[in-house]
Each structure stands twice: as C-alpha cells, then as structure tokens.
Automatic annotation (TrEMBL):
<protein>
    <submittedName>
        <fullName>Uncharacterized protein YKR070W</fullName>
    </submittedName>
</protein>
<dbReference type="InterPro" id="IPR050324">
    <property type="entry name" value="CDP-alcohol_PTase-I"/>
</dbReference>
<dbReference type="InterPro" id="IPR006353">
    <property type="entry name" value="HAD-SF_hydro_IIA_CECR5"/>
</dbReference>
<dbReference type="InterPro" id="IPR036412">
    <property type="entry name" value="HAD-like_sf"/>
</dbReference>
<dbReference type="InterPro" id="IPR006357">
    <property type="entry name" value="HAD-SF_hydro_IIA"/>
</dbReference>
<dbReference type="Pfam" id="PF13242">
    <property type="entry name" value="Hydrolase_like"/>
</dbReference>
<dbReference type="Pfam" id="PF13344">
    <property type="entry name" value="Hydrolase_6"/>
</dbReference>
<dbReference type="GO" id="GO:0046474">
    <property type="term" value="P:glycerophospholipid biosynthetic process"/>
</dbReference>
<dbReference type="InterPro" id="IPR023214">
    <property type="entry name" value="HAD_sf"/>
</dbReference>
<dbReference type="GO" id="GO:0005739">
    <property type="term" value="C:mitochondrion"/>
</dbReference>
Length: 375
C-alpha cells in the first residue's frame, strides 16, 4: 500500500514536471484481459537496459511494447538484476523514472532479493550488511531485526581500520549511537551479508576477516566461521565506463585469497544471485505471481504455467549460463550492448545463447514475433 502511494505521489510529481507519460501500475490493471500469455520476460539491467543511468538499446521503446495503448501491462515481465543496494520499491521508482514506464516493486528482483529466504534463520541474530547504498535498510525491510551496516560496525572498534584517518570520505562517526556501539562489541556476529558492491575494499576485507576468523568477535581468538552470503558473484559488469568494471565476484576473490592465507580452513560462502539456479527458480515464482495479479486469479495464485520464459542478458557467464542451467522454460537471449562483445554473427563459445541480438529492442521484437503478439 505504501509503495502504491509512493508510486502515485511520484506520478503526480512527474506530470507536474511534464515528464513523458507513464504507464499503468499493476494495481490499475483491468480484469478485461482473460487469457494470460504463455510466456514472460526477465530483463537484465546493467548492459541491457541501462549503462550507468542511461537507457540503452532502445529500452524505453521496447518496454512500451509490453503495455497496451491504454497503458495496461499486457506481457508479464520483471527485471532480474544482480545489482542492488537499495530497496526494491526505491529501485522500481528509479527505473520508472529512467525508462518512462511504470514499474511495480514486485517487478524488481535484485541480487540480494533471495536473502529474504534466510529471515527465518537470522531474524533476531546480529548480522552485518556490506555494500554501497543502503544495505542495512534493505535487510531490515526483508525482516532481519538485528542488522548493522559494516560502516557503523567498524566504528565500534577503535583502530580496527588503521587507514580510516586517511579516508577523506569518512563522515559517519558522529552519527553512531555510542550505547549501541558498546552492546554490539561484545555480541557475536552470526552472519555477514554482502548485499551490494563494497565501497571500501581495504576496510571491508579487514573487518570481514576479523569477523570470520574469530567466530564473530573481532579481536578475540580463532573461532568457527559464521556463514557468509554474497548477493552474487559477478566478476565484472558493464557500467557507464567503456570497459567492464570489477564486480562483487572480484571482491570475493580478494577476500577469499586473503582469508585463506591467514586461516587454516578455506573460506566458506554462498552466492544467491544469477547464475545460481535459485535465482531463476525465484524469478519464475515472481512471474507466476505477477500473472495472478494481472489476471486477478487469486484462487490459483502462482500456479500459471509458462511455456517460455525469455531471459535477456549481456553476460554469458551469468545471464546465459544461469538460464541454460535452469532449463525449461528458460530461453536465453544475449545482447551485444554489455559484457559480450562478439561480432554480429558469433555466439559465446562456452555458454551459447539460443539467440544473439544487437539490442534489447531487437530481443523484444523477436519475442513479439515469435509469440505472434505483433500489433
Ligand atoms: O553490480 C551489478 C552488476 O554486477 C550486474 O547487474 O543488471 O547486469 O545483473 P546486472
Ligand atoms: Mg548485465
């Protein structure tokens, strides 16, 4: 309800600014549509619909084809990105603004979205959240009740990061509640979650090694490693810069390499985003629920069977590998706007897609033709 109010408020703001007309929210969808399509689409974000904050590959036009003339969403689609660091509701608003179509929070699946499935296990335990943006708010929204961002956690321990005085951007100290500092210091951290890309690799690797090798009590003796979860393991991704940037997988390699050289047992960790089949299973469930919402079929909520689910991605090692491994009903499509830079007749040798296209718009045009959804 709050998300819908936010969407309405943001739509009003946009119309005041005379920005392009936005399309309908899911709540406004009519029940006139009777037969759900037998297909759905999952769009990767970085390198497919956006580079940095700039739409690419005709993405706004392509997405508009998925709504009818009155702005009713007709094709079930979601964004399936390994990116994150903000709540799904906030990301939905940002995407709506950037792409000119109204996206519901239920259409945004981020690398960290599957962390929700771990709430039962860590609901009241002390956990540390790492990454850019608002990693702790993301985790709190999922239901974790005792989460602290690593920025604040590090400030609880004097001199834990000897380089801190040289970090000109570090302005958080004053904001930390000292009472909380004291209680946190003596409590064991039960798990660490890498929610989004680490901003300060040197500090985060240092503090995570302290947590992980001591059983969750930095500065104490060795102890069993608490569980460590990564939102994903992308070694590189396509941002605004011409060549790819190091991602969370590169950070994982750095952490693992250092941890393994100071600890007798190898680092144990789990990555839940693409290409993990869990991410694709979860995406299928989300798309099924979306169909139930679109077609008001609450009696059989989430039971729709898709003949085909198209995954449109730019990274063969992540989007294509993952959808190939997930198998039926996934149909991987590779664009040439991101990590994959082969020529127009080539495919990836190790993880070939079912189809290689130049842009996301080409991919959507193919899907609409293939599914006989031509206007
Ligand atoms: O950090 C984000 C990046 O690793 C990939 O994002 O949208 O290409 O899955 P995306
Ligand atoms: Mg991508």
């Amino acid at each position: 309800m709050i998300a819908l109010q936010m969407l309405r408020k943001s739509s009003q703001t946009r119309s005041r600014k005379q920005l392009p007309r936005l399309f309908s929210t899911i709540s406004q969808l009519s029940s006139q549509q009777s037969t759900p399509p037998s297909f759905g689409i999952a769009f990767d974000i970085d390198g497919v619909v956006l580079r940095g904050n700039t739409p690419i590959g005709g993405a706004p036009r392509a997405l508009r084809r998925l709504y009818d003339d009155s702005g009713i969403l007709k094709i079930p689609f979601i964004f399936l990105t390994n990116g994150g660091g903000v709540r799904e509701s906030k990301r939905a608003l940002e995407l709506s603004e950037l792409l000119g179509v109204e996206i519901s929070p239920s259409q945004v699946v981020q690398g960290h979205s599957p962390f929700k499935q771990l709430v039962n296990r860590f609901e009241n335990e002390l956990i540390v959240a790492v990454g850019k943006g608002e990693p702790a708010s993301v985790m709190s929204e999922y239901g974790f009740k005792n989460v602290i961002p690593i920025d604040e956690y590090a400030l609880c321990f004097e001199s834990i990061d000897p380089l801190a005085p040289y970090k000109k951007w570090n302005t958080m100290e004053a904001a930390v509640n000292s009472a909380r500092k004291c209680s946190i210091k003596s409590e064991r951290v039960q798990a660490a979650f890498i929610v989004s890309d680490s901003v300060d690799w040197s500090r985060d690797i240092q503090v995570l090694c302290d947590i992980l090798r001591t059983g969750g009590l930095p500065g104490s003796g060795e102890g069993p490693q608490p569980p460590l979860y990564f939102a994903h393991d992308d070694f590189k991704y396509q941002g605004a810069f011409p060549s790819e940037r190091f991602g969370m997988g590169a950070f994982r390699i750095a952490l693992e390499s250092i941890f393994n050289s100071i600890h007798s047992e190898a680092l144990k960790y789990t990555s839940l985003g693409k290409p993990n089949p869990v991410a694709f299973k979860n995406a299928e469930v989300v798309l099924k629920l979306l169909v139930s919402t679109l077609y008001h079929d609450h009696a059989h909520s989430g039971s729709h069977d898709f003949r085909t689910l198209y995954m449109i991605g730019d990274n063969p090692f992540v989007d294509i590998k993952g959808s190939r491994q997930a198998g039926h009903p996934w149909f991987p499509i590779l664009t040439r706007t991101g990590v994959f830079k082969g020529d127009c007749h080539s495919n990836h040798a190790e993880f070939p897609a079912n189809l290689v296209v130049d842009t996301v718009e080409d991919a959507v045009n193919f899907i609409m033709r293939n599914e006989s959804y031509e206007p």
